[in-house]
Specification:
By secondary structure, the protein is mainly β. It has one helix at 5-16, and strands at residues 22-24, 38-42, 107-109, 112-116, 120-125, 131-137, 155-157, 160-165, 169-174, 180-185, 200-202, 205-209, 221-226, 232-237, 268-270, 275-279, 301-306, 312-317, 334-337, 343-348, 353-358, 364-369, 385-387, 401-403, 408-415, 418-420, 448-449, 454-461, 466-471. A hairpin with a 2-residue loop joins β11 (200-202) and β12. It is globular and about 60 Å long. The two termini are 33 Å apart.
Length: 477
Amino acid sequence: MKPTGFAFAFSLAMVLSGCGGARLLLAPATPPPPQGAGKTVRGPAYAPAQVTRGKPDPATDWGAYNKTHAGNRYSPLAQVAAANVSGLRQVCAFQLDKPVNMQSSLIEIGGTLYFTTLEDTYAVDASTCALRWRHTYQLARSPPFDPNKVNRGVGWMDGKLFRGSNDGRLYALDAGTGEEVWNVPVGDPEIGETFPAAPVAWNGRVYIGNAGGNNFGVTGRMMAFDASTGAQLWSADLVPTSGPASQTWPPSTAELPKAGAATWTSYTLDSTRGLLWVPTGNAAPDFLKSLRPGANLYSYSVVALDTNTGALKAAKQLVTDYDFHDWDIAAPPELIDTPDGRHLLIAAGKNGYFYALDRDSLKLLYKTPVTTIANATAPLTAQGTHFCPGIDGGVEWNGPAYSPRANAFYVNAIDWCITVATGPPSALEGRKGLPWTGAKDRMHPFGVQDKQRSGWVTAVDSSRWTRATGTCCGSKI
């Protein structure tokens, strides 16, 4: 039976009794991070008058990180089929003018592709691959530790693009011209906060959270900003500061602060109920569980926040055992309504599992392994422990896709193992802005990854039938 609104509210209250952590109008870091210089270059396909200003077309556009705010990653386009896929040929290509680490999700709206790198935002004609414009924002300062140097994409709303920057800022661009609309401080790069996640933009607000939960003393938080001005509206801690949930951590001290539960990919929106669903990362120190006994809420979780206030409304921790491997819940969760009337919350993590939850009660319906899982229960030692998946394995920033035609999920996962040697807890030292993992070797704070890696695509029927085939490592779906 579908629950009533009262039943839904009651179930959320039962799930989250005692939650704390929402804050309104949190002041930015003091002093705020300085603003870098920005410049827009026009390309041969520059045509601001042709750019869509309204809502994306659900039939043809890919208007958000996971196509829709609910996030099923499914396209209804049917021109490519099994009968003609062998005849596909490249029509055009766009070559970047510099070597960069690219982890951006592309969005496509009205025939224009938008994507990002660390400092650049691109608008490209989807038919010809010709540049419309490129905006370059030079970081005013860099975090002490940022080896990946990436950005994972933009949010879109009403002809504006929104993205974070790893110097602690959030800015808006005009989608037609590439010119900057506003640029505001949102965090502190000096302590190791970065902002690579693709924001979600909806109902006049922009939502983004900070990454950096592996660094000393950095905790995750989500924030909302006015889409017209960039003014901050609310901020919510993902590591509670009060209530029973805060007691799932040991007392915080200067030497052993609470840390973790950050975000670094994107988010999911339930526009009907006004909920923002957030995936959270590991607790820190990553590999020394003895220093942070307890459940460490709300790390390794999916968390629902009220879109208007940031108040916590629901949460479910998914990695509840052996949480000393840096196994983030990285990819945005997905809200799926199946043909048989079920309302699911779908998630997948770096621990190599695919999860299906009842969306109203957050009851776990099933979890399915989607990559190699080995030595996951073995303790980490000073001599080194080899386990799978490693810190870059499992399901990373691209989550499952759902086909309503097949009533099946398609999950991409990386098969990549690692060896981690831990130092003695008494010797753990925290340094501002640097990794705080508990690994013995400071030169390898996240362990030593295997030289070989591969990947999987797993098809999961909504009734839990599974089938797996090998594929190239880290493929997107």
